Amino acid sequence: MVETTVPGLVFVLSYTINRSINVSAAAALSLSAVLLVARLAQRDTAKHAFGGIFGVAFGALFAMMSGDAKNFYLPGMLYTLGLGVAYVATSLAGVPLLGVVLGPVFKENLSWRTRNPGRKAAYTKASYVWGAILLGKSAITFPIYFWGDATQLGWLRVALGIPPFLLAVYLTWIILVKAPAPIDVIAEWEEREKAKEAAKEAEKKAASSGGAAEAGPPEGEKDRLGSRASD
Predict the structure, then answer these.
(1) Are the beta carbons of 157 and 8 closer than 8 angstroms?
(2) What is the pLDDT of residues 87-141, one digit of tens each?
(3) What pTM does this model have?
(4) Domain residue ranges of the chain, discontinuous segments joined by +
């Protein structure tokens, strides 16, 4: 959230002071680059930083090419709108996006679709929550984009950055904590692999013992048996 919100804050602060799209865009892009370098230096996950710098770069390009500072925020607004639609559409289709995203995190993958209906219902409900919050943000910001000015839009985008995200996370936690526990399909797969290995070992032992039985007794034992038979 820092990597997606703070560059926008820097842009609107700079633009409020100097009214220069180029300077403001350069300041936001430079900050995104610094955040990316910091991630790489810490050997931390950099995918969010990369996402942030690409988003800022697109916004800066849109703003400078159009000469309208409001377009700095347009890519992020379109992304928010598209993501909100995706949450709602996938929930209606029976494959809620939140389940697709969180399934691997909880080691359940997509098992909730067919084996855990209670969890599927929770993912569907939580996805509707995310969709409603994101579409609500879009319903607030797009009118300002069309009829407001760049500073109003910038400060509104900053205000609607972290709080709605935290609200969505909190509501998701409330929904999922009441849902059935995830099915650990990774552990199940590991157990199946162990069972297969154990079965193979048992087959090898059975084959080796069977071969020894077919070969008959050792030579010394044969001699003793022969002498007993002659007696």
Answers:
(1) yes
(2) 999 999 999 999 999 999 999 999 999 999 999 999 999 999 999 999 999 999 9
(3) 0.79
(4) 1-72, 83-181
